[in-house]
Design a protein that fits this description.
8 strands, single chain, 4-stranded antiparallel sheet, binds the ligand FC(F)(F)Cc1cc2c(N3CCN(c4nnc(C(F)(F)F)s4)CC3)ncnc2s1, two-stranded antiparallel sheet
Length: about 500
């Protein structure tokens, strides 16, 4: 591990954002073992100091001139030393340079777990860093997983890495990261499964485990995860701008060093920050959202939803409603292959908000009668809407837990009825991929899909459907499910 070297200490006391970027750059460039504990403590200290007191309103213009409160070397050194003592005091270091074992990973998880405050509000902000752990004995779900990986790094196990789905975190270890283990909890009121292997039972088909296509981190990607987890919010409506600027600078550093290439959510986070305050002429935030989608298609067999909802949210905020419908249809094309389980609340809420808030809002605007170029005349918008709803219907099919209820059907019927019959008539529904749909029923969809055939299939579909005169939508025969939902 790089450790807290003299050249890092020379950057203290830290007074500017640019000094923090230098610390990260030296840790990322000089060794292949950036010190996770050091970087998490530094970032946590800065975030907590700048979001705990009313700091809103400070003029922020650049990483060099933005003044930070002084962050003393001694504060960081004391916390760093404390973490080492907590970990090495309970678990013997890896002197023989062997792979970690399940027992070792569980013991490190127990050290963190048993030292947390008994009960606290787990979803509060700023509980993700080792600073929060060492000064307040509080961590959120992600923070526990990160602390376990940082603890294993302190012990000298360089095979223990963070694995990330879109709403959960666990660790991989052993030869080629072949072993997996739960190390933290998920959601509310669920018994934790710490120590167990990942997704062996029916949870394997839930979105929570992304069909076993998680982001498996390198050390540098673990740094990207802690940077992504920076939370600039001062309160529900105001962000500490210097914390947001620091996060943006660090994400660009990681981007330029190539460490975001396989991390769609981090690219999406950067896209959101760039939309608010562009720092990089030549790379539009829309290009970043496309890059995140490409990464999910290339490296994760298109099993992730968030890259499409990042892009859809961007289009929606910028009134590009036709494009938003396409992004949301693509998001739905991902979720339809999963079975909905009670662990999937986060993505359920995402689709609910799109279906029952964003789309109805768009329909209201577009049917106000003043839109000359209204999407209500565009058959591809209608087709993408149907695809969006159909994916949610398929998500429900074969799931133990229902997805749709009357609350969904009303906005859905209202939306569809806004399109004129002649526009609807232009949409030709082709019922193909019957075998894919049927095989989801008996669960085999997750076997043959693992060979990453998404890329080939995607290219083939794109080349086929480039005829412009009519909209051919590749559909699955669940329109009856759709109309059934409407008649409920
Ligand atoms: F580790 C867990 F359990 F926390 C799961 C992870 C979440 C997450 C993330 N997020 C979550 C998704 N997220 C989104 N923000 N907007 C989203 C979208 F709906 F617009 F797509 S998704 C914020 C950042 N960003 C980087 N890395 C991770 S790893």
């Amino acid at each position: 591990m790089a450790g807290f070297r003299d050249l890092d200490k020379a950057l203290f006391p830290i007074k500017h954002i640019s000094a923090v970027v230098k610390l990260f750059r030296s840790q990322l460039e000089d060794t292949n073992e950036p010190d996770l504990a050091l970087l998490s403590i530094v970032i946590g200290l800065i975030e907590n100091q700048l979001t705990s007191r009313s700091n809103a309103g400070q003029l922020i213009d650049s990483p060099e001139t933005t003044v930070l409160p002084r962050f003393e070397l001694e504060t960081v050194e004391n916390l760093y030393r404390k973490f080492k003592i907590v970990i090495t005091g309970s678990v013997e270091p890896n002197k023989t340079k062997t792979y970690a074992t399940r027992d070792l990973v569980k013991r490190v998880s127990d050290v963190i777990w048993n030292s947390l405050t008994r009960s606290y509000y787990k979803d509060r902000a700023h509980l993700q860093s080792l600073y929060s752990y060492l000064t307040g004995s509080k961590l959120d779900c992600f923070g526990v997983a990160f602390a376990v990986v940082a603890g294993c790094q302190v012990l000298g196990y360089d095979d223990v890495h963070l694995a990330l789905s879109e709403d959960h975190a666990w660790v991989v270890f052993g030869p080629h990261g072949s072993e997996t283990a739960e190390v933290t909890w998920h959601g509310k009121g669920n018994e934790d499964k710490r120590g167990q292997e990942i997704g062996k039972l029916d949870s394997a088909r839930s979105w929570l485990y992304v069909n076993n296509k998680p982001v498996v981190c390198t050390r540098q990607m673990e740094v990207a995860a802690l940077v992504s987890a920076i939370n600039p919010s001062l309160n529900a409506s105001v962000d500490a701008t210097e914390v947001a600027l620091l996060q943006q600078e660090l994400l660009w550093l990681l981007y330029d060093l190539g460490h975001l290439k396989k991390y769609p959510m981090a690219i999406g986070n950067l896209g959101d920050l760039e939309e608010i305050s562009p720092k990089r002429p030549g790379i539009a935030c829309s290009a970043l959202f496309e890059e995140a989608i490409d990464a999910a298609r290339r490296f994760y067999n298109n099993q992730h939803v968030y890259p499409y909802t990042y892009q859809g949210g961007y289009y929606f905020r910028n009134k590009k409603y036709k494009e938003a419908f396409e992004s949301w249809a693509n998001a739905s094309d991902v979720i339809r292959l999963y079975n909905y389980s009670r662990d999937d609340e986060e993505i359920y809420k995402e689709f609910l908000e799109i279906a029952n808030e964003h789309i109805p809002y768009i329909m209201k605007i577009e049917s106000s009668g003043f839109e000359a170029n209204t999407i209500l005349k565009k058959s591809e918008c209608f087709a993408n809407l149907l695809k969006f709803y159909d994916g949610i219907c398929q998500w429900e099919e074969g799931s133990a837990t229902p997805v749709l209820h009357i609350g969904w059907a009303k906005p859905l019927v209202n939306t569809i009825s806004k399109f004129d019959a002649d526009v609807r008539a232009q949409v030709h529904i082709v019922c193909d991929n019957m075998e894919e749909k049927l095989s989801k029923k008996n669960g085999s969809i997750f076997n043959n899909n693992n060979n990453n055939n998404y890329e080939k299939e995607y290219q083939a579909t794109m080349s086929k459907s480039n005829n412009k005169d009519q909209t051919t939508s590749h559909f699955y025969p669940t329109i009856e499910a759709l109309t059934a939902a409407c008649s409920e």
